[in-house]
Design brief:
By secondary structure, the protein is mostly beta strands. The chain folds into two domains: 128 residues, Sandwich (Jelly Rolls), CATH 2.60.120.10; 156 residues, Sandwich (Jelly Rolls). 4% of the residues lie in helices and 43% in strands. The strands form five sheets. A seven-stranded antiparallel β-sheet has the order 1-19-16-21-14-13-12, with no helix packed on it. It is globular. It comes from Roseateles saccharophilus (Pseudomonas saccharophila). It holds the Pfam family Pirin. This is Redox-sensitive bicupin YhaK (Pirin superfamily).
Length: 324
C-alpha cells in the first residue's frame, strides 16, 4: 500500500470519523407524497429484516427528530435532497433545502428539532443529508450556542474535467474560486491552525483528478467514499462504501471507476483531547457529562416556545432563517 493511504475501513452506521470530527450520519429516505399534515400518505413500511426505503425516525406525524438536547460539540447538516425544518430553544427557526448547510454550535446547551416535511403531495419526497458532528475543544465546550445558515448560492463550487467539488468550509488551494462562508466564531473551524475542510466531490466515470495537499502541519484527511463502484487512489483500487484516511501532506491522484463516484472529504488538525460521549452530550470527563444531564433537567437549555415538540413551518414557506 502506498504511503499516501494510511487506512481503509468499511463504512458502518453511522460513519466513523477522525479527530476533530466525532461521527457522520448519512440519511437517504425515499418518502412517498405528502398528506395534508406534511406526513407520508401511506403508513411506514413494516418489512421485517429488510432495509426500509424510508423511516419516520422519532416523528409521529412528520418524519424527523423532535426536540432533543446537545452540549459540547457542533452539528454540520448538509442537505442534498429534500427539506429540513429547524426550531430551537434559542428562539431560532429555519427551513433549508437541497444545497443548503446548517452549522449549529451547541456549546453549553441547546434543544432543537429537525423535522422533514413532505411538501409535495403528488410526487415522492426524497430526503438525503449528512449530519457531521464536529468536536469543540475543552475551552469552547461551554460557549454560547448559536446557529448559522450557509445558503447553497453562497457555497463555492469548482468543476473541472469531470470533477465537481463543493467547498463548504476550507479553500481548494491553487484554484481561483470564491471564499466559503465563515464558520461560527467559537467553532474549531475558526481557529487559524485547524486547517479544517468539509468538501463533497462528484467524480464522473473514468475521470482523473489530483487532490491537492493540505497546508497545515499535523492535519488529517479522510475520504468517505459512499457512492459509486471503485476509486483508485495512488494506484490502489478501493471499493465503494469505504472510509479512507490519506496522507494530506502531498498531492493524491484519484481515478474513478465505471460509475459516478461521490465522496465526502473531512479534514482538520486533531484537537487531541479526551472525548466522553453519552447520548447527545460530548464532553471531556464523565463528571462533565453528569453535569450536562443535571443542567438539562433544571434549565432545559432555554425556553422551548413552539407549543409542540415537532414543529414544522407549514406548506407555503420557502427557505428562510430567523433568530427572533
Amino acid at each position: 500500500m502506498p504511503r499516501s493511504i494510511i487506512s481503509v475501513a468499511r463504512l458502518g452506521t453511522p460513519w466513523e470519523t477522525i479527530d476533530p470530527f466525532l461521527v457522520c450520519a448519512y440519511h437517504l429516505d425515499h418518502y412517498p407524497p405528502g398528506n395534508a399534515d406534511l406526513g407520508p400518505v401511506e403508513p411506514p413500511p413494516a418489512e421485517a429484516g429488510a432495509r426500509k426505503p424510508w423511516r419516520m425516525y422519532f416523528g409521529q406525524t412528520v418524519p424527523g427528530f423532535p426536540a432533543h438536547p446537545h452540549r459540547g460539540f457542533e452539528t454540520i447538516t448538509i442537505v442534498r435532497q429534500g427539506v429540513v425544518d429547524h426550531s430551537d430553544s434559542l428562539g431560532a427557526t429555519a427551513r433549508y433545502a437541497a444545497g443548503d448547510v446548517q452549522w449549529l454550535t451547541a456549546g453549553r446547551g441547546v434543544v432543537h428539532a429537525e423535522m422533514f416535511p413532505l411538501l409535495d403531495p403528488l410526487k415522492p419526497n426524497t430526503l438525503e443529508l449528512f449530519q457531521i458532528w464536529l468536536n469543540l475543544p475543552a475551552r469552547d465546550k461551554m460557549a454560547e450556542p448559536s446557529f448559522k445558515m450557509f445558503w447553497a448560492e453562497d457555497i463555492p463550487r469548482h468543476v473541472e474535467a469531470g470533477v465537481d467539488v463543493t467547498c463548504i468550509v476550507g479553500t481548494l488551494h491553487g484554484v481561483d474560486m470564491q471564499e466559503p462562508p465563515s464558520p461560527p466564531s467559537r467553532s474549531w473551524a475558526s481557529d487559524p491552525g485547524s486547517d479544517l475542510a468539509v468538501w463533497t466531490l462528484k467524480v464522473a466515470p473514468g475521470a482523473r483528478w489530483q487532490l491537492p495537499a493540505a497546508l497545515g502541519s499535523g492535519t488529517r484527511r479522510q475520504l468517505l467514499f459512499f457512492k459509486g463502484s471503485t476509486l483508485t487512489i495512488d494506484g490502489v483500487c478501493v471499493d465503494a462504501r469505504s472510509a479512507i484516511e490519506v496522507d494530506c501532506s502531498a498531492v493524491v491522484e484519484l481515478v474513478n471507476g465505471s460509475k459516478e463516484a461521490e465522496v465526502l472529504l473531512l479534514q482538520g488538525r486533531p484537537i487531541e483531547e479526551p472525548v466522553v460521549q453519552h447520548g447527545p452530550f460530548v464532553m471531556t470527563t464523565l463528571d462533565e457529562i453528569r453535569r450536562a444531564y443535571e443542567d438539562y433537567r433544571h434549565t432545559r437549555f432555554g425556553d422551548w416556545s413552539w407549543g409542540v415538540y415537532d414543529p414544522n413551518h407549514g406548506s407555503k414557506r420557502g427557505r428562510f432563517a430567523s433568530t427572533d
